[in-house]
Amino acid sequence: MRARTSLVITLAAALLAPPVIAQVPGGGGGPTSAQQASGGPIGRMTAGQESWRFESEAMRRANAMTTEEAEAEYGAERVELANRVQALINEGKCREARAMANAAGERQMALRIRQTCRSR
What we know:
Elements: H1 2-23, H2 34-37, H3 47-63, H4 67-74, H5 76-90, H6 94-103, H7 107-118
Helix pairs in contact: 4-5, 5-6, 6-7
């Protein structure tokens, strides 16, 4: 009788175990990644995702330039112009900043000044 009772209890425990495991976060398997937990895709990245990742890394590097790196890439005169223009923008003199950029022949800088000042 005792053997029969323990066999029934063991069998019942074995039958109840799978639903309990399914209720554990991750399904009882290995831990999920942060990407999977947030609903992201599982597996390899698509070509678009890979391209975005590369572009994001390039933008991060470009935004983290030191003054010396900026001068080496764009020239000391352009960096100095950008610093003067930034000072005018900080003072709220957007028209003067745009005029200075246009006078120096920096059309893209003038457009960016217009976009920046418009949002203020």
